[in-house]
Model the fold of this input.
Amino acid sequence: MALFLALVLAVFGLSAPSGTGVASAADRNGQPTLTTPVKIDSQLIDKGYRFEVAETGDIRSVALFMVELPDGRIARAYCINAVIGSAEGAHNLSSFGEQGIPGGPHVRWVLKNSYPEIGARELAANAGVTGAFPEEAAITATQFALWHFTNPDVQRPRIVEVSEEIRMNVDTVADYLIDHATAETAPEANLVLAPTQQNGQAGSDIDGFTVTTTAESGRLTLTGAPAGVELIDPARNVAVGTTAEVTSGQRFAVRVPAGTEAGTATLTLEADVPLQAGSVLVYTGGVAQQLGLVSDTAPVRQEVRAAVSWTAEPAPEPEPTIGTLARDKADGDKTLDHTGGTVVDTVSYSGLTPGQTYTITGELIDADTERSTEITARHTFTPDAATGTVDVEFTVPAALAGRTLVVFEKLFTGSRVETGAVPVAVHEDLKDLNQTVTVAEKPVTDVPTPTDEPGAPGDGDDCGGDGHDVSSSGGDCGAGSALSAAGLLTPLIPAVVLAVLAGGASSAVGSVAPVTGSAHVPATVPTRAPVNGGSVTPVAPAPSSTVAPTPAEEAQVPAAEPRRLLANTGASVLLVVLAGLILLLLGASLVQVRRRRS
Done:
């Protein structure tokens, strides 16, 4: 049901304060969508008849009020409520405003089909009244019909100080209006700025304000806003400042720059539009009587307002991050046994949304090859807070002994990680020591040391006193001995050769006899040593296989002259020995020179 707002006047006959406004429509909570400052003066009224309030017996008067509009023109208005207030007109209408005006849809029909829209005589004729029916009767009949719809629980007042004919004619016309009234919607707003309240956030455009008016144009003004907040024409995406000329159907937004503190502002739309029957006057000063406005087609400067508010721009949500600390599960250090073990990687996270499910996937990377070991693990969890830690475990086999391993981790949303899913956080750094663990080298088995050969120098032998041979350059005894033997071998070889030659020459001297003309050497007859002191017995020579020369052959062999051989003097042997000694000394000197150079 369309609703009207209420204006409050004191008691009939008393002047109402200025500051009253006009409302053409209202929402359920009684907030007007159209207000215009007007002035009501009790001296400018058309009076009806006096009546007695049935509930109290008070005597009041009906009146058609004159409303002075801003341009000085006069409009007319009836009371909407029956007179049930105090002498000062005090009346609590708060609940009344919350509920709306009972019978409101019929009020407009009554206003459009009664006095003064229709003259007193015509109204009486429409109702079938042929007797006396002056203007006071028309005003009173119209008021009684309005109260029937707006105050259905209030009895119709009884007119006093008039003839019975007038009283009956007033009741007849009032009944006619009540019986023929049809429900009509509230007057269409001549000026609308909708919605009347819009909320947003700093750093955005608060959109959705639409202008509707029967006027050719109007003016939209933004007031109460801090510097930087301005109107935006969304159709052109152009800032128009804080004031703009508008036409019906045009949309506007309020742009609030980022960083602006929370606040509010007011949008005011003004235009010259005609008033319509059924508009309601609203008193802004407090408790007073309501007035239903009779139609007036002349344009009137009217305005509507809307409120806009915004909250401060929220701080940006931190992006999820992760960090890791890998260690040996067995003892908590950074080195695993060569037989393998378990790596525990404690993943610390921040910037996560509590209550949302996440999955961490990890793999072990060989730090030397920078390739995956194909050892992976994952952990799904739902954090209670934005920060925290979870553990991910990797099983390392013995085959990776001696390797340095780095843990790479990725964080995904959800409990399932599809192929191609994009992680929300990654921690992959080959140089991060916190992510790094080492698998110990496999130990090497010791080989037994062989024992020394008999006669070989043992540990601690000095090889001649100082542990070095004459040709040794500081090495061990065995090395020095080998070097000395190799060094002395060179000069000893020629010396030995010469000695052998000399010995051979001496033997030759002792076995060669002078030749006396025979080419054959007489065989030496060996003797056998005596046994037991006996005499030596000559042994017969063995038969010779040599053929004896013939006399002719002996005649052909010349007699050899005697010659001097090496064995005769011994001088040649001495020279040979001296030469060998000299060569020996030269060889020893050469060995010493080599040792010093090395």
Remarks:
- The radius of gyration is 69 Å.
- The chain is about 20% helix and 30% strand.
